[in-house]
Amino acid sequence: MTPGLVRVALRRTLRDVKYVEAVRPRRARGLVRDVYRQVERDFGMLAPPIALHSPAPDVLAAAWLMLRESLVARGSASRAEKEVVAAAVSAANSCPYCVEVHGMALGSLGEPSAAAAIEAGAVVPDADTRALAAWASGEGDLPADAPAAEFTAVAVAFHYLNRVVSVFLGPSPLPDAVPQPARAKAKAILGFLLKPGLAPAPGEALGLLPPTAADGPGWAAPGSTLADAFARAGAAVEAAGERSVPSRVRDLVRREVKAWDGKPPGLSRAWAEPVLAELPAGERAAGRLALLTAKAAYQIGSADVAAVRPQWTDDRALVELVSWAARTAAVAAGDRLAHRPRREDSPRRRGR
């Protein structure tokens, strides 16, 4: 399987997006077209986790803004370190699609053993990488000299993307049509395609969304590109939530996320029903989808989406509901990471 065929196959995976119809590249216009062009230019391919947002153009731009300015754009941290954070967060959130993609990217950057260990839930061999992955998973402290804002930005972006991907995509970036004997070779080629070249300059995606008077996240330096990017993205997603998520549902999800320690609730969904009982009957389906997206997106099935369709009939509203809930949980996850104490005697620091 040639790289060209893999690129074509990845574009065709837009047809495998569940529940909504992603805009095809040839039909993209306006903001959707502008985002698609940047994604293919800077990320190397039209990534389905971004393209699935296309029924809601402002939310599409917000998702790309978070991903580009955290993972893709040039910064103090290396791309390999950022991919460690992306893969570790994805593993903690039980998002096999994102673990596979960012494990392949990490392997292409010369860290195949770290990628394999994160995917398998095993011990990462290198001490520095192990400490970074543990922090990203919520199980350790960030080394004192690490670029905390950059790593936290990546973590927040993937806490967001993992949840959206768990709703709208399957467990693998490769289409089901790729036969089993060819999947290993296809993954190798995809890993090669995911290997980044020269990192683009930060800030070039900011113009996709208007400036906002809202403050950036507390973990980002005021006035920095990361603060501006996440503020603009946040304003767009909050506006989407106001359009498509009932206010009582928003209040419930915010309250539940604020009281949550971030640990997955497990396979049972019994925890959700007593909470949802306080909503009016007509809002419980939307409340269930939003609450599950925030706290256990891996538990969502087709019946949960079908239940909201009588009232949330258009694709834009469905994307906006899921996006709002995913971002609400991601913001809380970032706050927990940003306030974690940092060891002065970290392996990274001792090695200097």
Automatic annotation (TrEMBL):
GO molecular function: peroxiredoxin activity
NCBIfam families: ahpD_dom (TIGR00778)
N-terminal signal peptide: none
Oxidoreductase recorded as keyword: yes
Coiled coil: none
PANTHER family in alphabetical order: CARBOXYMUCONOLACTONE DECARBOXYLASE-LIKE DOMAIN-CONTAINING PROTEIN (PTHR35446:SF2), SI:CH211-175M2.5 (PTHR35446)
One Pfam short name: CMD
SUPFAM superfamilies referenced in this protein's UniProt entry, alphabetically: AhpD-like
Domain Carboxymuconolactone decarboxylase-like: 60-136
Protein name: Alkylhydroperoxidase AhpD family core domain-containing protein
Keywords: Oxidoreductase, Peroxidase
Keyword Membrane: no
